[in-house]
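User: Please predict the structure of the protein below. I'd like the answer in structure-token form so I can feed it into my own downstream comparison script.

Assistant: Understood. Taking the following sequence of 404 residues as input:
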Amino acid sequence: MKKEIFAKRTIEAAQAGIADAFAASNNTELISFAGGFPDAQLFPNDEMGESFRQAFTENSLNVLQYHDNRGYAKLRQILAKRLTADGTNTSADDIILTQGAQQAIDLVARMLINPGDGLVVEAPTYFGALGAFDAYDPTYYEIPMDADGMNMHALQKVLMAHSVKMIYTIPDFQNPTGAVMSLAKRQELIRLANQYDVVVLEDSPYRWLRFSGKQLPTLRSLDTEDRVISLGSFSKILAPGLRLGWATGGQKWIDAIATLKNGADLESPFITMVAVANYLSNNDLDAHLATLRKIYASKKDAMVAALQENLPNGFTVNNPQGGFFVWLQAPAGVDMGQIMKADITPNEGVAYIPSQNLYPSKTVCNAARLNFTGEDIPTIQKGIARLSKALQKYAPAVPAAALS
């Protein structure tokens, strides 16, 4: 028998759906609601260009040399002030800068997860996180999502019955559902983590993109036993091409992540970190965020309105208060992945992320994640009209009595 050349993690990574999402979103022939792409028209190109130019003039920094694997100290100080102002007391020493929050997810998993260790995830969850976690061969426990976040009763049942090393959660505008974890559930999650001695990985790349409602405290700000590691990213608020994110937590966590980062890449690109620090020092990030929130809210409203107006019987969509995504649910028995590949993408030129990719078990097929930030409003309306028309043939028949 011929020996398999690729490691199991390589095969599983190819099946995670990440490459498909990027391919769909970069295909100019498609209207893509697949990738979590920001609006490229909103990137601060001129300001970032000047920030990079300024970085090269700061000769004392020697920006092309090796530096600290935890990241540019000035940027960590700026970020610490912003996180503290947001309600999570943070010092520069509590932060390590990473190549996007995606690398931070991978490093935290590498730090904690041995093969077979229990890992709780929301169901559904971010497929990029599953792609990172799969490499460490955890035992997954899926916790259903409610409108106000992870179901705490189901979580407690899992924690009572199984040994769990880590809980992964996206409490603010969850990817893919857009749900926000309520304050009561945030408090209960911390209580359960303390009771059952579990680490919590809080992933919050969308936290500062709230369109309506009240901002809630981070899980890390509620942490009483140094068991929450919190992640953030500049990808959604500045530009993903910067590949710059962060992890925050107690010193034992940051020290361990730094050790693993040495083996991954030594450090994140110093020139980029200096440029981002320059941007934050010389520009008004709050004004930029306000612009993002205004424009993304209008796009979300356009998508939700188009879906509510055009979706056939049996299909529903939520209306999130922020973030990048809406969650489309189909009637039972409709495989949104199968019909996308066989019909909707080739015939209608529309792509999205089917729910099968968003569960470790790959068992839930009748839902989809739709991104509203990457396309303009006319394209959103055109794409939703095409999608809704295509879904008509998969809608359950309405009994004649219901039409009378």
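That's the full token string. DSSP finds 15 helices and 14 strands in the chain.
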